[in-house]
Amino acid sequence: MTLVTEATTEPLFCAGGERPLPGMSLQAWLAERLRARILNGEWTPGQAMPAESALAAHYGVALGTMREALRRLVDDGMIERIHGRGTFVRRALVGMSALRFFRFGGQALNEVPHSRIVERAVVEAPAEVAEALAMAPGAPVLRVRRLREVQGRPCLLERIWLPLPDYAVLVDDDPDAWGDLLYPMYAARCGLTVHRAVECIEFGQPASAEDAALLELAPEQPCAVVTRSAFDVGGRCIEWRVTWGDARAFQFTVQLT
Amino acid sequence: MTLVTEATTEPLFCAGGERPLPGMSLQAWLAERLRARILNGEWTPGQAMPAESALAAHYGVALGTMREALRRLVDDGMIERIHGRGTFVRRALVGMSALRFFRFGGQALNEVPHSRIVERAVVEAPAEVAEALAMAPGAPVLRVRRLREVQGRPCLLERIWLPLPDYAVLVDDDPDAWGDLLYPMYAARCGLTVHRAVECIEFGQPASAEDAALLELAPEQPCAVVTRSAFDVGGRCIEWRVTWGDARAFQFTVQLT
DNA sequence: AAGTGGTCTAGACCACATC
DNA sequence: ATGTGGTCTAGACCACTTG
Prior knowledge:
The structure is a homodimer. Chain A contains 6 helices and 10 strands, in the order αβααβββαββαβαβββ. By secondary structure, chain A is an alpha+beta fold. In chain A, the strands form 2 sheets. A 6-stranded antiparallel sheet of chain A has the order 4-5-6-9-8-7. In chain A, a hairpin with a 3-residue loop joins strand 2 and strand 3 (about 85-90). In chain A, helix 1 (about 25-40) crosses helix 3 and helix 2 packs across helix 3 (about 65-75). The interface between A and B is medium-sized, with 26 and 26 residues. Strand 7 of chain A pairs antiparallel with strand 10 of chain B.
């Protein structure tokens, strides 16, 4: 009598009364099952998952138990719940521009700075890049240098490394058509969604005199350097980038509770 | 038959069936009531609150509802729950040393750096300090300058401002007896507990040639500057401090999910 | 053994979004 | 009107900590 309206790649029900619970709580086990199904691509980012009632019925658990399992995934940043609409696998990160670490004069809030692609080349991955992207050293990667401008003034310089062949479609097309936001472009053109990222902030100098000139800074001018590894929902690193900006414009706030 | 074992400063029960719920959920209202009682000092930091079952009975709500209210306070960092032991008002922050922003050579993990009080004086609060501490400009404050050393090498210099008369007992005693950790000392000597803090990280130079000399840095050497406002559980700012450290040793990691 | 928080159930009803 | 997540109830039992 139960209609299974969803394709599933796992046993429909853990019958026989025996569930794999070797000390793991039911809600934790449910969360892991759902996480695996998301990672398996059963529900893709932005797509709605079945209703909590449907999931609870599917697994034969109480509603409250399934709610707790879903809450774990929300806390993980894996899914997002919207009252009255449904439960969704989270899309790419937003509002994570390195620009949020800086205060550039006259910068309007939420203003997306203009992007200019300064360089795009297929190169062999240097050791550092290869390690970050979990590739063999020397493997082909797409290297991009991008300058970001606020009100016509250069403020951030980014060096970005992208693993090939995942980003192959970006090798030969027109970079001017990429737009100002890369992550939505990655999703649309390459089917790659950034789900999580780690940033490391340090102080240093521009990587070269040419980079300093692009930023209109003296070569020895101190810069804040933001190194970011970006991962997809499966935990694979799909972008590595380093961003430079004038240290005098750097400002970052931390809440401690 | 119900024994009221706790002193309470509010009506014991919201009788008459009418609870102040002008669109607020019951659990949110409960959380606010409990928050007010904590801020009122009914349960002090480190002390156990009544059991969730007792609280639920006291307010005449279901256990699960009270659990949700308590969960909100946990998420706020207001309380802490320990399985089998109880629910506790959170103590002072730990592991919030500005040292966590730096990597100094040979620094062992969790090593508490040695502290040396370089200056202690009662001064009139400058405008900036007065604003941070919500005092009148020129009001008396205790100014402390502290040098922190790792393996005998100076690494951080702190300028700390403390509102008077709250810290009056520190004006004339022996600073060498303060120890390496100030916040536990504040709690023990002055009855002041840091519950929350906000830090702002910027880039700059030492405040004076003398400060640079204390850090054994050139006066023009770039430094990371960490400005911290520390608040008690009631939201009052009870400490304002600025910390300088060599920018070359600065390293900070941010997780984005 | 007693007391605590953590898990789980099986409902009911409410608030929000969409068609 | 229907379907979604959010709130609330009233229990039961489990896991952990302490005396």
